[in-house]
Amino acid sequence: MKVYIRNAIVAALIVALITGLFSYLFRGYFYWGDTLNAAAGTFIIWAFLFPLVYKYTGYCGKEE
Description:
The protein is elongated. The chain has two helices and no strands. The protein has 64 residues and is an all-alpha fold.
């Protein structure tokens, strides 16, 4: 479970940086709501949904 949380944190940080950059470029100012929403959604997907898919299907993205 630690690996999933660590991966989720890294993914959320990367998405937050990219979203913040594009938010600033397109709007002309930084809007924290977009960044927070994108980071929270990414964290939920990586920390909870990906492990559930693997738990119930046994599929981790590798071709056998």
